[in-house]
């Protein structure tokens, strides 16, 4: 993945980079909207946690990474997977529980990983990726080749003790780690402000690393913050913390209404406000590119149709896949190998 | 052969394996000074890049082991006492044990975790657990409990070279115990029990740290005319069922000695294996000598009352070696 140029020099390279970010955001949006529909109308084998409304953080950060940079993700990880170059067909087949899935149907939505793309994986444990990314950053430091290790996590995970442990280790060892907090204000079904003291960014500041708090629905702002952090990694200057304020449109997981039994943790008005074009990360980027003459309505419509077509192809790929191998779990766990 | 202490044998294995593969790294709590002596000299020899003192943060130590291993390194992590496994348990149970499965086998995790386990030295309840059963139950993690210096060295070397995550548990009571260790390259395969004493009348199955009490019990039994066979179960996962069953079929009588709390212990699992696969050979009920579901108290006399000893083993063996009780 080429590193895009962020300045508006209107060069072809710059324009291509902008369109590439928009293309990935559209793919994530349409893939997850489709998953929401399937979850509701047909059903999927397991739960899915969707990142609709948060596409800019995944794409902005990953736009500055190379394929061999490491990345750990969260339970809400489809966007990170696709933004880091993961294949939508293999991801859908995984969510459908098929043998053709990226993890052969052994992991599902919460564990999509592709090591050939540096994607160490999504994680079902809130905060579970923090120490793994820190370990990958240690490996990158030992390799000495300028690789970075990015850890996506949420404001919910920032209340896990391991968050502090990892900021500490990364800072004291000067590891090439980038901690990216996607602050959507929600910790599963609880409003984070009701369970969180102080500012999360102050926690990172306490560990003596550069902190940047950005508008999480502005893909360019995120990309710029990521570029600074990645360059620090390349130069062996140590870890960085980026906090992107954003909002999750969907529930913690699909069909959460059934689980909550009529209870709510937010109002419909609040959700609707974040859906509007002045806040939606894709609409904002679309309008911006339209004003700059990079992407007019026709091109946007074409890109949208392309994303939809790619998603429909992924659904077909997933549906046609063979069922998962029922003996694979034993083989992978080494069961039955003992004398 | 040369005579070495258990800890010294472990130290040698670490030196040799780090020498052998430059992608082998070691980090953990107090590894520089080496509280137990096992990691002594490694920092001086291999430098601060490959050998690192960590902060006291077991969750991160275990998680970093997963990340660094996933990113291509062969990792040795030291958690000091095995009680600290509990504070690092998310990364052990949810990540280390499961990542290979969850990713469809995309990666191996060559991780060896070191920790010292077991009681008997007034270390009190939070530094005395023999908690190998919680690890045995995870699946996907090898659990090793060597009982001799030779096995400690040979099994650790094999574990470090293995691409599966393993816990190498050092018995606290055996650290200063000496034994003959083969010179030169010495590898012991994992998943093989050893027959530490041949006998005909009763099989004493010793798990890790219990070897000395078991050997003392065998001597006492011999004086009473009972010829005990000792199986040293040095590897719990994988478990060498074949050697265990073979001995049970020979003697028909079995006592399993394990320092874990009794419920869901290694002993209770081995008893279940014997019930499944050795039932036809049994001439008496299978007995377990374990810790009776209590944590270790501090006071030496109170701990000794709970800690399995040779007399407990002799009593258990004698109870099933009387012909009239054999039904």
TrEMBL record, chain B:
Required cofactor names: thiamine diphosphate
The UniProt record lists the keyword Oxidoreductase: yes
Sequence ranges assigned to domain Transketolase-like pyrimidine-binding in this UniProt record: 4-177
Alphabetical UniProt keywords: Oxidoreductase, Thiamine pyrophosphate
Top-level division of the source organism's lineage: Bacteria
GO molecular function, one term: oxidoreductase activity
Keyword field contains NAD: no
InterPro entries: THDP-binding, Transketo_C/PFOR_II, Transketolase-like_Pyr-bd, Transketolase_C
Name of the protein this chain belongs to: Alpha-ketoacid dehydrogenase subunit beta
């Amino acid at each position: 993945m080429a590193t895009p140029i962020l300045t508006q020099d209107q060069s072809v390279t710059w324009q291509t980079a902008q369109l590439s970010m928009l293309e990935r955001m559209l793919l994530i949006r349409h893939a997850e909207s489709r998953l929401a529909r399937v979850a509701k109308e047909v059903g999927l084998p397991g739960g899915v946690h969707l990142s609709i409304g948060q596409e800019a953080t995944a794409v902005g950060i990953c736009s500055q990474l190379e394929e061999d940079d490491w990345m750990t993700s969260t339970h809400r990880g489809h966007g990170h997977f696709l933004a880091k170059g993961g294949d939508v067909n293999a991801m859908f087949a995984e969510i459908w529980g098929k043998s053709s899935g990226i993890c052969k149907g052994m992991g599902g939505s919460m564990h999509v990983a592709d090591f050939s793309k540096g994607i160490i994986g999504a994680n079902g444990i809130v905060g579970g990726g923090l120490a793994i990314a820190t370990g990958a950053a240690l490996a990158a430091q030992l390799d000495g080749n300028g690789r970075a290790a990015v850890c996506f996590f949420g404001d919910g995970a920032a209340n896990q003790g391991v968050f502090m442990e990892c900021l500490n280790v990364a800072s004291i060892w000067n590891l090439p780690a980038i901690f990216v907090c996607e602050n959507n204000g929600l910790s599963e079904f609880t409003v984070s402000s009701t369970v969180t003291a102080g500012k999360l960014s102050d926690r990172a500041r306490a560990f003596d690393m550069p902190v940047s708090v950005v508008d999480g629905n502005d893909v360019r702002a995120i990309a710029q913050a990521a570029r600074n952090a990645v360059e620090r990694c390349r130069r062996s200057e140590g870890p960085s913390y980026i906090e992107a304020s954003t909002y999750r449109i969907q529930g913690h997981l699909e069909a959460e209404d059934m689980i909550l039994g009529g209870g709510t943790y937010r109002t419909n008005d609040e959700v609707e406000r974040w859906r509007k074009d002045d806040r939606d990360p894709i609409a904002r980027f679309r309008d911006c590119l339209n004003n700059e003459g990079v992407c007019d309505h026709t091109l946007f419509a074409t890109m949208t149709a392309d994303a939809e077509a790619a998603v429909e192809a992924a659904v077909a790929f997933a549906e046609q896949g063979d069922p998962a191998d029922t003996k694979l779990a034993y083989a992978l766990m080494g069961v039955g190998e003992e004398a | 052969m040369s005579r070495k202490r258990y800890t010294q044998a472990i130290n040698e294995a670490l030196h040799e394996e780090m020498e052998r593969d430059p992608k082998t790294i070691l980090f953990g709590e107090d590894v520089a000074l080496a509280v137990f002596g096992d990691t002594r000299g490694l920092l001086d020899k291999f430098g601060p890049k490959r050998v690192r003192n960590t902060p006291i943060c077991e969750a991160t130590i275990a998680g970093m082991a997963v990340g660094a291993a996933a990113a291509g390194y062969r990792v040795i992590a030291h958690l000091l006492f095995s009680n600290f496994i509990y504070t690092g348990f998310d990364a052990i149970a949810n990540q280390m044990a499961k990542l290979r499965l969850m990713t469809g086998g995309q990666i191996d995790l060559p991780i060896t975790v070191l920790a010292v386990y077991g009681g008997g030295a007034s270390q009190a309840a939070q530094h005395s657990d023999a908690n190998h059963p919680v690890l045995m139950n995870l699946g996907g993690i090898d659990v090793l409990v060597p009982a001799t210096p030779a096995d400690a060295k040979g099994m650790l070397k094999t574990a470090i070279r293995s691409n599966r995550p393993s816990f190498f548990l050092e018995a606290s009571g055996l650290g200063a115990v000496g034994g003959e260790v083969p010179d030169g390259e010495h590898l012991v395969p994992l998943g093989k029990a050893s027959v530490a004493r041949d006998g005909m009348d009763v099989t004493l199955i010793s798990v890790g740290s219990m070897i000395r009490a078991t050997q003392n019990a065998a001597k006492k039994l011999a004086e009473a005319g009972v010829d005990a066979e000792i199986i040293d179960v040095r590897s719990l996962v994988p478990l060498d069922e074949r050697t265990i069953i073979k001995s049970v079929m020979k003697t028909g009588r079995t006592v399993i000695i394990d320092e874990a709390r009794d419920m869901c212990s290694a002993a209770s699992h081995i008893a279940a294996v014997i019930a499944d696969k050795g039932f036809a050979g049994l001439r008496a009920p299978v007995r377990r000598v374990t810790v009776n579901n209590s944590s270790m108290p501090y006071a030496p006399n109170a701990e000794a009352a709970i800690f399995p000893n040779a007399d407990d083993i002799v009593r258990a063996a004698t109870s099933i070696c009387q012909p009239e009780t054999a039904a």
